[in-house]
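REVIEWER CHECKLIST
Item 1: Sequence provided? yes
Item 2: Single chain? yes
Item 3: Sequence as submitted:
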Amino acid sequence: MGRALATSFVLLSLSVASMAEELDLASALAEATLPPTGGTYDLDWADGVPTVAFGKTSTEREFVGVTLALPPLGFEPQSLWATVEFADLEQEATRLACILWTDDRQAWYAVQQAPSGAFESRAVEVSLPLTGLSRAAFTSAKGSIEWSGITRLWLGVVVDDSVEGKVSIRSAALSTRPHRASEPLVLAEPGRPGSWDVGGDPSAQWELDYPEDGPNGETITEIRFRFPGGSHMYLTPAVSVPGSLTGYRALRLVYQAALPDGIEGLLVMLSEDAAQFQGPTPPPTDGEWAEVLLDLADFHLGGWSSDDDGRLDLSRVGRVFVGAHGTAEGTGGEGVIRIATVEFVP
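Item 4: Structure as written out by the authors:
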């Protein structure tokens, strides 16, 4: 690209109080290349900043970004910090992403919501958690990542829509600082209800709909159901979590629910692989719109579930469930759950 290449990486020791280490990737960005993904991308260096312009015609998820060569690491990073700027991308279909590679093509990755400011054509600072990384499906290595073997970093976004856009990366660093969530991670909100699926006992009946029946007439998620009486039933509507929950403190719900007699409160759960973690005291269901804030530290392993250590790992949460369970009185009854907002807050 006609650019003079920096010759070394800078390992910085931050304040003594924080005891954090940081590897500035400025020289790696100066040598950035396009990853071999097969997509139609162009790498430009406007104002000395690596910018990837792309045109994506499918709705399948694709990575868009740059490849950076890494030196041997003398510490185990907890987070990746970067300054990024997007053009013509939509927040609903775009996630921050990094993929860490060994020379023998073993890979681990992290995906995280990008802050809303990144979609306003201005540069913003972002971070990705590097604790609890996910293994790529083709990776044969077992266990957690071995940082001593990591030699390359793909840094950019994953895009789930057909779109033309640009991704600019102005700075990047690996750090022992913990990841910091900067704004809520929204899974559903009035007017954008998200994509839900519903499971339940074979004897239960239910119907999923997205009516314009929110607190102010917005589109929301609605599940109408019927439990037969005399037997324990369960209903588990779920929405996916698009990235790590590291750095988040609580789950916020805005909902309206009326349940069959005998069913006490909503069943709120988080799934970690096959394990299910139940929320604290079931949120009340009096038929009125309500808001609750559930501390993630209060979620506990369900008595019907199993997990290696019995503790919720925020980096591995895959879905949120908002449903009901229990034994309906008499011959049973009908219920309804309306969900306006599901979000995790820092």
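Item 5: Key structural point noted by reviewer: The radius of gyration is 23 Å.
Item 6: Recommendation: ____
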